């Protein structure tokens, strides 16, 4: 409201609503005027609050819909008073004990020679009220549309949650068999090798305990270092780099092992594969437990959850996908959080697969995924960046929807749930997923609060 209109309204209040004989007091719950009732008064609310309702009938059911609330200083009954038919379009009820001043249809203009006729004096008020009504109607329409959209999403999520629960029930038995048999086979191999091939058993155990955590860029550097340090072929250096993460580890293996790298590497690879099978079974079992992320979001969480470990495990899970791209890591030491490592692994797995898929489908030249982490005062950030084609502006809001996908390569690429899961999980940590994208650089940045069971940043 401009200062000019405000000044005119203040003058109207003084000139027309200052008569103590034209005052009305109503208690909470009393009705000032009913919808469809004749109203020949214009009210100024001095104290208290009133609510305007409109009766709406649908399918034989009548409902009262709130259309406005007014407090001290507001004019009430404007539409019916100036409409000419003097019929109220709403039911106006007192919310808190109220005092109102009023004028009726017989009022005469005050100082018409200076301010014009009665209608001319009240014209700014009528225009202001009309604008306010239009704004309220627009807001109500937007709120109704949002409520309908939320209801649709809730119904869709409920259906999806039921389907997920049924799927989880069916998968539990199969995953349980895989997990138990993998553990049995692993222990059997351990005992067998320890009895008959104790040296080889050491490499099998090394592979089973640690798995393969190196990524492409790091591994290539290690291979070059080992070639120079031990004067061996690239193939031998590659085998050694997978077995021993540092030069000191490689030296501790002894010269006898270096001469039999080909053989020892096979036992290490066997242990690594068992490690991956065990972790994949464990991860799958926990994913089945947490598919409720699409419904309730009820998870078992605890303190001291290692973010960096979850990133490393995620990279190990999708290493077959990552072979098609370069992987660069820039990880700062991160504080632990109150959480669930399986949930966090899900976040990174989905972001990594999303980045790889985007670059592979677009046939990006020199495809590269960069994973970075950084710590701030109240939160930490983990970002996954790719140099793929980017996300078009019109799709940025849609890609977090559960049913959205641009992939056409069958079931494994067509569910469109990955980023929806990421967003739901991160938001359940009171965190945030931020997307920044342009052709040649797309970054998904995950912000997680530090400290307690949740936090702000």
TrEMBL record:
Every Cyclic nucleotide-binding domain range = 5-105
Question: Which is an annotated GO molecular function term of this record?
Answer: protein histidine kinase activity
SMART domains, A to Z: cNMP, HATPase_c
Q: What is its EC number?
A: 2.7.13.3
Task: Cite the SUPFAM superfamilies for this sequence.
Answer: ATPase domain of HSP90 chaperone/DNA topoisomerase II/histidine kinase (SSF55874), cAMP-binding domain-like (SSF51206)
Query: Which ranges carry the Histidine kinase domain?
Result: 304-452
One Pfam family, please name it. cNMP_binding
Could you tell me what reaction this enzyme catalyses?
Answer: ATP + protein L-histidine = ADP + protein N-phospho-L-histidine
Q: What class of enzyme is it?
A: transferase
By its UniProt entry, which Gene3D superfamilies does this protein fall under?
1.10.287.130, Histidine kinase-like ATPase, C-terminal domain, Jelly Rolls
Q: Which CDD domains match?
A: CAP_ED, HATPase
Protein name, please?
histidine kinase
């Amino acid at each position: 409201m401009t200062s000019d209109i405000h000044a005119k309204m203040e003058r109207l209040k003084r000139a027309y609503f200052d008569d103590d004989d034209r005052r009305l007091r109503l208690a909470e719950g009393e009705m000032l005027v009913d919808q469809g009732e004749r109203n020949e008064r214009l009210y100024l609310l001095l104290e208290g609050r009133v609510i305007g309702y409109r009766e709406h009938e649908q399918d034989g059911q009548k409902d009262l819909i709130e259309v406005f609330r007014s407090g001290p200083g507001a004019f009430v009954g404007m539409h019916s008073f100036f409409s000419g038919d003097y019929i109220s379009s709403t039911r106006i009820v007192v919310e808190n004990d109220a005092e109102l001043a009023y004028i009726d249809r017989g009022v005469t203009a005050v100082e018409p020679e200076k301010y014009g006729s009665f209608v001319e004096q009240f014209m700014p008020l009528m225009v202001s009220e009309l604008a306010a009504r239009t704004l309220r109607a627009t807001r109500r329409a937007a709120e109704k549309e949002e409520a309908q959209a939320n209801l649709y999403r809730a119904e869709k999520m409920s259906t999806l949650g039921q389907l997920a629960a049924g799927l989880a029930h069916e998968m539990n038995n199969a995953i349980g068999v895989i997990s138990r048999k993998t553990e049995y086979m692993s222990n059997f191999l351990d005992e067998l090798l320890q009895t008959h091939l104790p040296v080889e058993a050491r490499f099998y155990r090394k592979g089973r305990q640690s798995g393969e955590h190196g990524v492409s860029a790091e591994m290539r550097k290690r291979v070059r270092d080992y070639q120079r340090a031990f004067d061996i072929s690239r193939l031998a250096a590659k085998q050694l780099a997978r077995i021993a993460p540092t030069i000191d580890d490689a030296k501790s293996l002894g010269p006898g092992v270096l001469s039999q790298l080909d053989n020892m590497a096979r036992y290490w690879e066997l242990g690594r594969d068992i490690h991956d099978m065990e972790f994949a079974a464990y991860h799958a079992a926990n994913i089945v437990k947490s598919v409720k992320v699409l419904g309730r979001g009820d998870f078992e969480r605890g303190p001291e959850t290692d973010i960096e470990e979850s990133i490393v495990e995620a990279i190990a899970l999708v290493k077959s996908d990552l072979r098609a791209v370069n992987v660069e890591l820039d990880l700062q030491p991160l504080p632990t959080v109150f959480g669930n490592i399986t949930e966090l692994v899900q976040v990174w797995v989905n972001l990594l697969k999303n980045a790889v898929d985007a670059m592979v489908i677009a046939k990006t030249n020199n495809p590269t995924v960069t994973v970075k982490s950084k710590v701030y005062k109240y939160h930490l950030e983990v970002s996954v960046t790719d140099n793929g084609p980017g996300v078009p502006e019109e799709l940025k809001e849609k890609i977090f929807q559960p049913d959205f996908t641009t992939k056409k390569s069958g079931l494994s690429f067509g569910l469109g749930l990955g980023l929806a899961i990421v967003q739901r999980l991160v938001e359940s940590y009171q965190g945030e997923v931020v997307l920044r994208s342009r052709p040649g650089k797309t970054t998904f940045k995950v912000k997680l609060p530090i400290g307690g069971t949740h936090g702000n940043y």
